[in-house]
Design goal:
Layout (H helix, E strand, L loop, with lengths): L7 E6 L6 H12 L3 E6 L9 H8 L8 E3 L4 E2 L2 H7 L2 E7 L1 H9 L5 H8 L4 E5 L3 H5 L1 H12 L3 E2 L4 E3 L5 E3 L5 H15 L4
Parallel strand pairs: 1-2, 1-5, 5-6, 6-7
Antiparallel strand pairs: 3-4, 8-9
Helix pairs in contact: 1-2, 1-8, 3-5, 4-7
């Protein structure tokens, strides 16, 4: 049995061309027995649809603070942060990395991150120059200092045509990293 079986995974998906990979990641995690709840940043639906991710996760996709504005219903970021065994943000855009590193909180994903008591895993994805920029590198270093796991961005061809680091770690590799993590902590969480 997979070490992901029965685990509760929050998957944050940011606005990045790599967001198409999040559909495969959801499928792999669910197939391994995890319960997956997807949170999209405001720009993510331009790259991958809530319908796709909701169908694959078997859960409604969360996109903002409010469920039903007329009824005053909202998505409780504290509850979500307490519910999860892990928060995985893949792809993690430069914008979201900046928000998380600096405690900015204008999206549901930002609020869940700041409320989460579970381990946090980040899979950066952006173009080469953005990834190598000193501000992005400083944000990645700060996020590591906070105790988050930041997976290295593999080198390869990027959507812009440039080549180098900035690619999102492949979904199969993310699944393997999560399997190793949960295997290492056993059933203690």
């Amino acid at each position: 049995m997979s070490s992901l079986h029965g685990r509760k995974i929050l998957l944050g998906v940011c606005g990045s061309i790599a967001a198409y990979k999040s559909a495969l990641l959801v499928r792999l995690l669910v197939k391994a027995g995890a319960e997956v709840q997807v949170i999209l940043t405001p720009s993510a639906p331009a790259f991958v649809t809530p319908l796709t991710l909701g169908t694959l996760s078997k859960n409604p996709v969360l996109q903002g603070f409010l469920k039903d504005e007329r009824a005053g219903e909202w998505h409780n970021h504290v509850h979500l942060g307490l519910w999860a065994d892990a928060l995985v943000i893949a792809p993690a855009s430069a914008n979201t990395l900046g928000h998380l590193a600096n405690g900015l909180c204008d999206t549901l994903l930002d609020a869940v991150y700041l409320s989460a008591r579970c381990p946090v895993f980040l899979a950066p994805a952006m173009d080469l120059d953005m990834y190598q920029h000193p501000a992005t590198q400083a944000n990645l270093a700060r996020l590591r200092q906070y105790g988050n796991t930041v997976w290295d961005s593999p080198s390869g061809e990027l959507a812009s045509g440039l080549a180098g680091p900035g690619r999102m770690l492949e979904p199969e590799d993310i699944q393997a990293e999560l399997e190793r993590f949960f295997l290492s902590i056993g059933t203690s969480s």
